[in-house]
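User: Thanks for the earlier help. One more: RNA helicase. Can you show the sequence and predicted structure together?

Assistant: Of course, both are below.
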Amino acid sequence: MKRKLNEDDVPEEVPSTAISNPDPTPSSFDLLEPRILRGIQKEKYSKPTSIQQKAIPLALEGKDILARSKTGSGKTAAYLLPILDRTLRRKAESTYQRCTSALILVPTRELGAQVTRMTESLAAYCGQDILVENLTRREDDKVQRARLAALPDIVIATPGRASANLNSGALSLNSLSHLVIDEADLVLAYGFDEDLKHLASSLPKGIQVMFLSATLNTEVETLKDLFSRDPIILELDEEEKNTGTINQYVVRCAEDEKFLLIYAIFMLKLVKGKTIVFVGDVDRSYRLKLFLEQFGIKSCVLNSELPVASRLHIVEEFNKNVYEILIASDENEVVLGDERPKNKRKEDGPEEDDDQRNSEPKLKENSEPATEGAASKTAQESEISASTNGNQAGRSVEPPKKKRKGPRLDRDYGVSRGIDFKNVSCILNFDLPTTPKSYSHRIGRTARAGKTGTVISFVIPKALYRKHKSTTFPTTQHDEEVLEKITRQQEKKGEPVIPYNFDMKRLDGFRYRLADALKGVTRIAIREARVRELRQEILKSDKLQRHFVENPEDLHHLRHDGESRPARIQPHLKHVPGYLLPGGKKEMADVGFVGINKTDGNRARKARMKDRARGKGRKTGAGRKADPLKTFNAKGRGKK
């Protein structure tokens, strides 16, 4: 029995009921193999999350699972831990023969690389007993065939890659025990339906199937009917509602005021910590990057044009706090007009509710070989589909315009889905997404693991659309309609979207600087910035890849937030005098003039003064020749 001192400083016994007992609820981690527990400690997991606490025991029993849990809730570890445990226990049996026992299907390369890293980290103390192979990498077919010849225990692939290797005989599913479809609602929207049907027909009977997603919709129901009999459905929205707090704000402003507000937010440091800025497309991301460079504000761009290795490196460096501002363009979420996935598209008729359909279309330009997604459309088919979609009966259909050729975009790219961005304090929707579903996935990048986060969304009222043509963006025409849907959706979750009224008059001092900066960001500057960065990233990714393998420390010196430089840099914009600050000094006596691109006065005048001091140049007054005509030759060209 424990003893303590009473009022008279005499030790006395304490009843056993006064001793605090630990939580009697057993942890799902206690069911796992000891080597896996060491991997969990390496990942610094203190206790299982809600999805892990419920899903791991069911998965260890071999049950099929369909889980819905918000982004950042630990879904990846929820299916990896039981797969690793059962694989290790199976290998301990005397009758075990080496084979591929688990296939994990993901929609994007970034998510495939992330799942691979987490699998290797959790299995770090398993030695050679766990072999993992990532097929989402862009590699030659012969290289992948050689990798699969080693019969890895866990294979991570997109449905297209898995189907292609299955056709070639490089991948065998005869001894498969586990099938996982991560971000299940997005897999079908990427046009992998034919590949999934092919995989479903090749799977052995009795395997365990797990679907995991942040939303449950008709696409997930389709996958459930295709792969599983009667899965156990786990919906954890209510339990996870209070695990992290998101403060959501919306700012109504004009098109050019978006740039004014983001300039003021970062220049005055109104946002603390790391920020992800979501924009509409690639051009928009470089326009914003070049604009911020005018004021000396560093940022890096993440988009589908960059090589996979560069994108993954940017995410890793952002997670390590190397960069504070990440500008992301997720083309898979941009819906111009009423383009929908082909399996849910309707030519005429009312629009479906966003909770019942997936409105994230595929990219129009496909950068994968023909084997990657057998059902994917060509660029021409996508253009025709987009031009005819939504036309009413009796309406003439215009032929598709010839599209200017540009850099190919990676169809397996996605930034707001699945990727684990750590310690993001603010999500800034510079361009509002086109659907409430896209909004939910974007804001899921912050307030992860019980932390708080802030979301700021810029909304263009219809009356202000196309009033500033140089900064306009097509999707902003429907901002108010989308905002109404977002507001209703978030109110159902108990997370209201609050209007935030900036006093724009207090930012009047910044407006002339806004005009100067926007003039420097021309279309030519944007195009040159895109080409320059793409050339640099390709050089880093391909030609220097072997060098980085031999010298990994050099990789840490790469920077993705450097100046793009094609825009005209104006040094005076980086300085914010006190009289421009809201509520700051109004007098200008102590503020010196800083010339544009002139840091040391008038260079031409100084040069003339030096020449005069040396006796060169034009002479004035009495020193000038009396007859200026004698200084020209007969033809009037040049001096004698």
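User: Great, one quick takeaway?

Assistant: The radius of gyration is 30 Å.
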